[in-house]
Design brief:
The protein has one domain. 51% of the residues lie in helices and 0% in strands. The chain is elongated and about 55 Å long.
């Protein structure tokens, strides 16, 4: 749908695009791009303070943890295997490196993936 669509409601906001996924990843409103998608670590704000989008009606449920596990797993497991094959450090060294790194990556990525999922839901028009 483009801006010149005669059937488009004038108050509908900008056309929906997959750019909303990137805006959500950056904790921004999927429609207007203003900050404030999340009000705490994983709690979604009820409404956007700028464009009044009902953000709270977009429910991401189990998708963000699942995608986060897939992403972190696909980054950590090959790295663990390569370090083991090339350097063969002691097990305690491996644990001291990979457990904190996995935890930090997961905690950093989880709210961003949640925002991206909400952005994607808005872009395709799926409400929970």
């Amino acid at each position: 749908m483009n801006d010149s669509d005669p059937h488009r409601h004038p108050d509908a906001g900008p056309p929906r695009s997959i750019d909303a996924l990137w805006r959500g990843f950056r904790h921004r409103c999927p429609r207007c791009g203003e900050r404030g998608l999340l009000e705490s670590f994983l709690r979604v704000r009820a409404r956007c303070s700028s464009c009044d989008l009902d953000i709270g009606s977009y429910r991401s449920d189990d998708a963000p943890p699942y995608f986060t596990i897939v992403i972190v797993g696909h980054l950590i497991v090959p790295a663990v295997l390569m370090v083991e094959k090339w350097l063969a450090p002691d097990l305690w060294v491996q644990a001291a490196i990979w457990v904190p790194l996995t935890l930090l990556m997961t905690l950093w990525l989880l709210p961003r993936v949640k925002g991206a999922v909400i952005g994607w839901q808005w872009a395709v028009g799926v409400k929970g």
